[in-house]
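Example protein was shown:

_____
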Amino acid sequence: MSAVLKKYGHSVEIWQLCEDIAQLPEKKEFIAALKKSAPDIIGFSVVTNQWQYAAKLAKWARGTKVPLVCGGIHATVVPEEVLKSKLFEYVFIGECDEAFVDFVEKHALRKDVKDLSNLGYLKGGKVIINPVRPLPDLNKLPFKDYESFDFQKIIDAKKGWVGLMASRGCPFSCTYCFNHFMVKKYRSDLKCSFKDLKYIRHFPVKKVIDEIVYLQKNYRNISMYIFDDDLFTFDKDYVLEFCREYKKVSKLPFVVNAHFGFFDEERAKALKDANCRIVKFGIESGSERIRASVMNRHMGNEKIIESVNLVEKHGMHSSVFIMVGIPFEKKKDLMDTITLLGKAKPGRFRWTYFFPYPGTEAYNLSVKGDFIDHEKMSKLVNFTDESCLDFGKEQNLLLSKIGRIMPWFVNACVGLGTSGFYREKVDELLALSADEWAKRAPHILAEDKEISKSFQEKNLSHYAVKYNPFMGVISDYFMNEK
């Protein structure tokens, strides 16, 4: 977006507010920075869990007397909420690389912007949402503007990991994700089929390779590229072409998102040959019932195990995403998830609590089942610490235990030499009352670290919490990590 604006002669400053990069600003510092920039427009890009913080910043920014604009998936899904807060004059819906430029151009000329596509605003207290325009053609977008902010600082904060996107869009309609909302919105406004919408689009391989060459020439300490595409392995021909070209310009390892339905021997071999280090899959639940009836994910457990094994067969590291606390999930479904992880034996698994994002079908299901604690939901800033759904005391307690130390539960059933030890640990945790667990929980990660250290000294395989508090990694990987 910054590159498009600069192409049309506008100046842009990007301020990424993140605790891992720099301390978050206090009100006085924030206002002083805005006054120094003297902007004509202030834009926020917001995801739902950031909304409360963004609203606070917007209140601070109101004194600048310039238009405040909100974009991102939160503004796209609940534009009425954003506008009725009266903190923002305008919202932008969907992909606005080009739509926002039209807004800036008209604003600069003091022309009326109210007829622009992708725009939402208040008129006499009534919310007006204009139709969206066709999705941007990725071939026509200019090269990204990395110079608008300190990208080196971000690289260093992420320990050398650099995020890239080779495509936009996803062919699936998982109930918990924004994609089904986006497709429905665009198809409705444009009155077209999914095929004619061209929701899944790829940047030309050459453009992606040029970006990688640029990054390696202009920045230091890059250790890993991570492709954040919803589904990098969707188009086999594209994957094979990318892998051929990537090897010509870089020896750095990279990470991709895959899907069990779009992953095979040929893709795996090509990725390995190009130095792909990690292949990630979304399992979400080990319960086929929950996946099909709640999440709209139709795949069998055997296919999941087969794909994970294929990654490992080709010498790459498999990573899977897991959710717990899903609407209508029972104890058996939770245990099915643990059991599937034990059978598949991925290199790592990352787990979170399910979060009912407004505008998604999964949110509607959560409301239908009367699971949402709305007060807790409004205060949550992430989906890793606790659930905002209420399943009753017994299930809530079990979720709290699994959500805090899932690797112990997986270790107990994975069939390693350490499994017997972890089965005793799990039985011990399951027997704890709510009060007893409340005392034990704050110390459980330190306990896991000590247990893992002991097993590492004996060279015994096990999963341990590693890299962040909600990731379990097999010790064979992190003990031999280069």
